Amino acid sequence: MLGDPVRALILICAMAVASSLAACRGEDSSPLPNRIVLGYYTGDIDSLDSAKASATPLNEVAMDLIAVDAQGSLHGQLSTDLLTSDRSQGKLSYATVSNFGATDFDPNIAHGAMVTHRSTTLQNILALSKTPGLTGINLDFEGLSPSDRDAYSGFVADLAALLHGEGSMLMLSVPAKSSDDPSDDWTWPFDYAAIGKTADLIQVMTYDEHVPGQPPGPVAGLDWMTADLDYAVSQIDGGKILLGLPAYGYDFDVTHSTGVVVEWRDSAALVGSTGAHPVWDPATESEHFDYTAGDGSLHQVWYETAQGIQDKAHLAVSLKLAGVSMWALGFENGAFWRAVSTGLN
How would you classify residue 82: left for phi > 0, otherwise alpha for psi between -120 and 50, otherwise beta? Predict the structure, then answer.
């Protein structure tokens, strides 16, 4: 049909109903093998080592390396080394395309790419999708203008049609929400029901519940995640949804209303160096502790534990989702993956 049997198989998967996606991937109906475990590659050496590791449940990799500009041009380069490794290990590879600008996600870049230079953007992403070894595109447009809600839905529909025509798949990264609230500028632009009809996978970013600059709190509370995912499955076939797991927490500087990321692999060392006494929060299944820094500032750290990740990953089973995603490869260690595997079983 397409000349390349691998791409032909991907096209069949892309056009299949969600319940048959696992069969297209050559998998059975048992809990863990049937579920996607996707990780984000950020471009650094630790992330590459994690992405290439074979002794983890990771079976899909999204390379967060490509940015679009307001004129629809793409910037960045995929890792041929990782594409080769993924293919040799049977992992699927996605190219993440974002509207990240100089310092953050930029609504003006997204508007220019989706509206003003729509055709150019679509054709450039389509060309990228034809990279040998690539399974599909992960569109990660964030911080959109609320007025671009319909433009985004239409852009997704057109991109999905183009990609499917070439045997490629479309995954979307979208912010988590528990309702469709027009007053919420961050989440309103994402019409779950509309985009869920045309995209193959929806990666719901169930992390960053609390971020520096806000009052301290969990990065991904179980109660918050559950409410968000309950809404997601009411709008989108659960067989298309990936829930997001954070392999990080935040050290909130309460005194200065700032904060920094604490990677999963570093959280235990931070507890030890501060002499803190962590407190488990059963409602959110997250852990936190307080300490006073050398400059006298008060800090509160919220982070994930093996028990929390296990129970949060299990939501993919209880809600019959396609699987899980994690941000970001290189932040974690073996304990994180053991928790994910246990949760999916």
Answer: alpha
Which CATH number covers residue 140?
3.20.20.80
In the numeric block, the tokens 């699927």 are attached to 92
pLDDT at 34: 81
Q: What is the pLDDT of residue 21?
A: 40
Active site residue 304: no
For residues 131 and 103, the answer to whether their CB atoms sit within 8 Å is no
Quick check: is 252 in a domain?
no
pLDDT band of 5, cuts 50, 70, 90: very low
Average pLDDT over residues 173-178: 98
Catalytic residue among 60, 142, 285, 304: 142
Structural domain total, the chain: 1
Mean pLDDT of 291-312: 98
- pLDDT at 229 > cutoff 60: yes
Output the pTM of the full model: 0.92
Task: Tell me whether residue 290 is in a domain.
Answer: no
- When the pLDDT of each residue in the chain is averaged and rounded to a whole number, the result is 92
Whole-number Å distance between alpha carbons of 148 and 135: 28
CA distances from 246 to 41, 103, 263, 276, 291 (A): 14, 21, 9, 22, 22
CB 203 within 8 A of CB 242: yes
Residue 279 belongs to some domain of the structure? no
The DSSP output letter for 113 is: I
Would you state the structure tokens that stand for residue 273, as one six-digit string?
Answer: 């160096």
Question: What is the number of alpha carbons within 13 Å of residue 157 lying toward its C-beta?
Answer: 13
Tell me which residue range forms the domain holding 317: 5-247+306-344
